[in-house]
Design goal:
Layout lengths: L1 H21 L11 E6 L3 H4 L5 H13 L6 E6 L21 H12 L8 E3 L18 H4 L12 E6 L5 E12 L3 E7 L6 H11 L8 E5 L25 H9 L5 E6 L12 E7 L5 E7 L17 E6 L5 E7 L1 H4 L9 E2 L6 E4 L2
Parallel strand pairs: 1-2, 2-3, 6-7, 7-8, 8-10
Antiparallel strand pairs: 1-11, 4-5, 5-6, 9-10, 11-12, 12-13, 12-14
Helix pairs in contact: 3-4
Protein name: Serine/threonine protein phosphatase
């Protein structure tokens, strides 16, 4: 029996090694770096059962690379589901009920539970019934803090959601490295209320966090192509602030937000229609980098496969100021016949940000 178990163990080890090769592991430019992985809006993967394994492939690939890429956190721009609370399926745009979508996206993130913290800025599709008609959301039901012990040591503050429930929709997470010092990642709900922006501003300017470098995530901030701030969006959810007001009320006045991330916007066509980037001076004259990443149409349009597996690897380099951005797809990378397609190398897909 012992010999049999030993043989099985050897066989499993061989298959594990084969799987790691097949997964096309990526490498950091500098082995002394650490990384964070950025996921765009998953809703296109989740709304059709045939697409759902593609998002699970992304989270499985991340889980397989936690040590290899020294991944400190996974950042997601929101819109986990197509509709938050709808029982009737509209077959022209999905084939799942809301419960089926929430259950599937939750199962995909299980790949990361107890391995790495993931930080999600809930999106407009995560509220109301179909279209952010109100502030109700299933998010706290499916993403309680107890599900992922990797949150326990880094979650430092939360703020109640629109229903008065303390939730990771508005939350802050602390990280540290010898080269970068202390980092704080703060996520806000979709179209954050004034009180949420006020909580965020007070938090990052408190004695505890004012010397941290802050990464801020909210769902709606920049528009595609033009990189203008979003404004006057057609959603009934109130009270609210769109991207322009978030810039004016929080980002510009801040002294220590160095990077703001979002998703939400996008269009069909070229890859350039799914991303945006701009740099503006904050109130004390420091550069504040802002980046939008939402690739849900790149696998065949709004009713395509959800995004061809594209994600971004943010490499925090050991100089303590440079973040390298790479755009990669494990869907293409997993096969030798498509591996040559797995990297985007246009100037808007692969670049560096220098943090002041």
């Amino acid at each position: 029996m012992k010999r049999f178990l030993a043989s099985v163990s050897v066989i499993l080890s061989v298959f594990t090694a084969m799987g790691q090769d097949r997964a096309d592991r990526q490498q950091l430019d500098d082995p002394a770096s650490f990384s964070m992985i950025l996921l765009g809006d998953p809703q296109g993967y989740i709304k059709y059962d045939i697409n759902q394994p593609l998002f699970e492939l992304q989270t499985a690939w991340i889980a397989d690379n936690v040590d290899n890429l020294n991944i400190k956190a996974v950042l997601c721009t929101g819109d986990l589901v197509e509709q938050n609370d709808n029982l009737v399926r509209n077959r022209r745009m999905l084939n799942q009920t809301s419960r089926e979508m929430w259950e599937n996206v939750s199962r995909s993130f299980e790949r990361l539970d107890n391995k790495v913290p993931y930080i999600i800025s809930a999106g407009n599709h995560d509220y109301g019934y179909r279209h952010s008609e109100n502030g109700n959301t299933k998010f706290p039901e499916y993403f309680p803090i107890e599900r992922n012990k990797a949150w326990y040591d880094c979650a430092v503050e939360v703020y109640p959601n629109r229903s008065g429930v303390e939730s990771l929709e508005n939350a802050a997470f602390e990280f540290e490295s010898p080269e970068w010092g202390k980092l704080l990642v703060v996520c806000n709900e979709f179209a954050p209320r004034d009180e949420v922006l006020g909580w965020t501003a007070r938090l990052i300017d408190s004695d505890r966090f004012r010397n941290h470098k802050v990464i801020y995530i909210t769902h709606s901030l920049l528009a595609e192509r033009t990189a203008e701030w979003t404004d006057n969006e057609p959603y009934d959810i109130t009270p609210r602030n769109w991207g322009k007001q978030v810039w004016e009320k929080l980002l510009k006045p801040s002294k220590n937000i160095v990077l703001a991330l979002c998703g939400h916007m996008g269009d069909t066509g070229s890859f350039e229609n799914s991303v945006a980037y701009r740099v503006d001076k904050n109130s004390i004259g420091r550069n504040l980098h802002q980046m939008m990443f939402n690739v849900q149409t790149l696998g065949g349009g709004w009713e395509g496969n959800g995004g061809d597996g594209w994600l971004r690897i943010l490499e925090f380099k050991p100089d303590g100021k440079t973040i390298g951005v790479k755009t990669y797809s494990p869907l293409f990378g997993i096969s030798p016949s498509t591996r040559h397609l797995a990297h985007r190398t246009e100037s808007f897909d692969q670049f560096e940000m220098v943090i002041e």
